[in-house]
Amino acid sequence: MRVGTLAIIGVGLIGGSFAQALKRQEMVDRVIGVGRSEANMRRALELGVIDSAEQSVTRAAEMADVILLAVPVMQVATVLSDVARGDHENLLITDAGSTKQDFLASARRWLPAKALLRTIPGHPIAGAELTGVDAASEKLFQGRNVVLTPMVENDPAAVTRVEKLWTACGARVSRMTAERHDEIFAAVSHLPHVLAFALVNAMAQREDAADTFGFAGAGFRDFTRIAGSSPEMWRDICMANRDNLVTQIDAFAHELWRLREGVRLGNAALVEEAFSKAREARQSLLPPRRDEGGR
Amino acid sequence: MRVGTLAIIGVGLIGGSFAQALKRQEMVDRVIGVGRSEANMRRALELGVIDSAEQSVTRAAEMADVILLAVPVMQVATVLSDVARGDHENLLITDAGSTKQDFLASARRWLPAKALLRTIPGHPIAGAELTGVDAASEKLFQGRNVVLTPMVENDPAAVTRVEKLWTACGARVSRMTAERHDEIFAAVSHLPHVLAFALVNAMAQREDAADTFGFAGAGFRDFTRIAGSSPEMWRDICMANRDNLVTQIDAFAHELWRLREGVRLGNAALVEEAFSKAREARQSLLPPRRDEGGR
Predict the structure, then answer these.
(1) A63 and A129 housed in the same domain
(2) Chain A window 7-26: which residues touch B at a Cβ cutoff of 8 Å?
(3) Which of B77, B65, B4, B64 has its CA nearest to residue B34?
(4) What pLDDT digit, counting tens, does each position of A146-156 carry?
(5) Are B148 and B61 in a shared domain?
(6) Whole-prediction pTM
(7) ipTM
């Protein structure tokens, strides 16, 4: 499979890595990049991540065979409405957003019915706190999970084509509904980010915050690494996945309260049992480590 | 300074690393180890971490010039009462426990007044999830923080001697009261452990736990790494530092609730501001990374 021209909207870590991997695999002939920062676009050209820079999403979509939206999730609606304004017959549309129900809703709102045949929502689980095209790598997705959440409107052949693109990047592709995706990632990704941000904030409010942080060990550093993530990106994710996130926060808060009461009442058995179960669950359920990344 | 014979009670990562570093610096002539596992003691002898193994804490204390307690904090009382049964004049007593007010209370309860002159509570901030003498290293404490929490009963010269031992291990030593220590470490260490255990437990209770963990990225892995820590050790720490820990859990829960309400009500500005503050605080207040470790 060869796709001709790829347009990436948002030339950062994810978009750039997707372009590089597909170039490397000779899956694409040409990459058009659309981005807001001129400096970043120049850099992407210099690095050979993109072959040309374009300011208009509409025009890039008209020139492309495949378009990847790799923008903060709150910008998806604007980008899709720009895509919809263009004139194209067989454009394959996909995205890399961390939430999926909102993408489906935007696609249904902004795209004509025939475009929905070839609009395949996706979410690569890679990225971490690095951002920008300089961090892009053709290896970013190797061994990583990519979740596609096909729409009922999709042409199955189009889903398979997007799947092949990600497979060519070295990713392991799975499929689930957008509802299930958003529920799972609220638990495994969005909640931990909120907890890390909340912990750092609670500590920063201490009068002796500088002293306190000064005694942080590697455990604290690891635990709060995700609090170094982009506030804008995570604000958007939290807003887009509100209901699931609140449900997950409440489930967590319930368990935290149980532990708090165990500690307060000196119930050593309860506390040890909870800690033991957690350690066992982590050891038995968390898949073996691969090299890096993860959002 | 040269101390003659060092006794380490608990021949694991911390006790073993302390012995190795002091041997390397030629600060000690001989190391006696006391531990419950015969296999571990044999291993410590093989590795040369200790020169002889002893079953009785009392006897080891009688032969030693310096004794380091590197046992779970709930065992401190038993070990100190064993030490107190022995016959010694100038024994320097110190420990490596993660909580300090309980150590002071045990020392005052079990040791005679003259022994308190030379009983210096300490806490090396190193360790992470590795355990056992095989993980011990003469380099473990290099560049690490060690906090001493001297008692009013202490002979200042004895405090200085313990400080010199840790400095010889490459550590940076600071002093504070036991009260302040326990308050700071409730925030920076004990709370994050409870949160990590609680998060993994909340997730493990899901019907689709295996699937959910399967989609965890590196962020989740980092965030929950400390949930792989010893349940027994952390149960003891939580019990020993109950009041401070409950206070910190409540401060965290308050901030979490604020974020939860921001998310639920779609208050994007509140959420973004909180995330931005957290990122800034972490960047500006967390000291630059050193290699590894941390409890």
Answers:
(1) yes
(2) none
(3) B64
(4) 999 999 999 99
(5) yes
(6) 0.89
(7) 0.88
